Amino acid sequence: MNDRIRQAGEFLRDTVQQATRQALSDHDDAMLRRGFTSAAGITVRRIQEMLDASKEQMKSTGLTKAEQAQYAQLEELKSGLEADYDRYWQGTGVDWRPLKPIAKGIVRRPEQQ
Question: pTM for the whole thing?
Fold first, then answer.
């Protein structure tokens, strides 16, 4: 009888340990995905900001040949990064693309201004 109790205790301990290891692994995977998504978002957002600034300049004064070349390089870099990220995460079911910001500014009540 003592042997069965010991075996049951070992089984329960092993089950809890396995569940704990799996939970920690899942947590680590989630942290990795969030970290990668944040880093990718920072990179793509910075490039997009530079592209947007160039687009605004195109509308007003236009771009020099050197600025046009830089704009084309930035577009190519952004497209290449997104393609690499897509290839890396392909088949995982993970959407690496960062969430779009919902608001562009802070909303304040009139009495706070």
Answer: 0.60
